[in-house]
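Homework help board

Subject: predicted structure for assignment chain

Our instructor gave us this sequence and asked us to write out the predicted structure in token form, then describe one feature. I got the tokens but I'm not sure how to describe them. Can anyone check?
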Amino acid sequence: MGISVTGRNRGHQTPLETGLFWVGPTRADALAAARSWRGRRHLMDGPPAGTAVSLATFRRGPADDAARIVLCPAGRSLARDLSFLREARRLLLWPAPPGLLRDAVAGLLNLPDPHTPRADPSRGPRAAILLEGAVDARRAARALATHEPRLWILPDPRSLRISPREIAAIERRGVRLCALRPVAVEALVASPALAAARSRWKRLLPPRMPVFVAPPVRRSPARSRRSSRR
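My token output:
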């Protein structure tokens, strides 16, 4: 079993409330989804009120506490909604470390027992790099320079303070990303088109995740007129 630990580097953090977040491509998209949900709460159970933010703003928030999110694609284009879900998966929806390493890290950091069955020591990866605190581009480059192992364990997906393009680049180098505090997806607010295309995104999100089908996004009269002239 090998776990390399790097030191803390807190970096800049944007103050945000902890708890539930409605996360969309923009804050306006997240607000629209939250209002749509709340307007039909009599039809289904749903999460309580939370904070509406863009995906970029959520990533800049503090990574000190576990977070719960409702994913809120804009609903104006199926292709863009699928792209948003893929981006959310890459940036936020990391798995917990494999069981054996999870147990080792919990013991190393004196973390609470996750109350899950103990891992089979004969299965799964046996080495990882544990990156504590905020990880900027310089720290990520140093971790890449070690060549092995290619499994990185961070406290939270928001601890990785590099751009989406840089994350894609390190994944192409074979790095797998795990989080000690994975972001929990409470639900997806989907357009009718996105809900009907479940086969195209079901592998991106947790199984059995609630899906709320929002009313179709209405185009403004000005936008409709412009479209009709084309």
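Reply (TA_rk): Your tokens look well-formed. For the description, you could write something like this. The two ends are 62 Å apart (CA to CA). That's the kind of observation they're looking for.
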